[in-house]
Amino acid sequence: QVQLVESGGGLVQAGGSLRLSCAASGTIFGIQTMAWYRQAPGKQRELVAVITSGGSTNYADSVKGRFTISRDNDKNTVTAYLQMNSLKPEDTGVYYCNALRSVAAYWGQGTQVTVSS
Question: Do residues 6 and 109 make contact, with C-beta atoms less than 8 angstroms apart?
């Protein structure tokens, strides 16, 4: 089992920045990818950014050039970060951390990001 705990959400004005963190614990050996998804009210959950165990990254077109995903691997934890700059009101939503290990997908509880205009 993998446990994911997100932090760092909040309220920010348009143009501002936030940094989200996702700490993975438990059976972290073999975590392949970690990703951030978001879900706006009334919309489907969408992929924002993903990072592989080798450090390769991929981003949704809507956040390219503004968001950066990174990852720290420690002996007992793996932490993924999402640096969000030049935030827009349309970035508002609940951000979820996701980890893939073998054939299982794990999710965090989500953290709210609200960008005011």
Answer: yes
CA-to-CA distance for 100 and 5, rounded, in angstroms? 15
CB 94 within 8 A of CB 1: no
Residues 63/50, Cβ–Cβ less than 8 Å: no
| Parallel, antiparallel or unpaired: strands 78-84 and 18-26 | antiparallel
For residue 62, what is the DSSP state? G
Burial group, residue 85, by CB count within 10 angstroms (0-12, 13-18, 19+): middle
What does the pLDDT read at residue 40? 96
Residue 4 is predicted with a pLDDT of 96
Number of neighbours of residue 55 by Cβ within 10 angstroms: 10
The DSSP secondary-structure symbol of 14 reads T
Per-residue pLDDT at 91 exceeds 90: yes
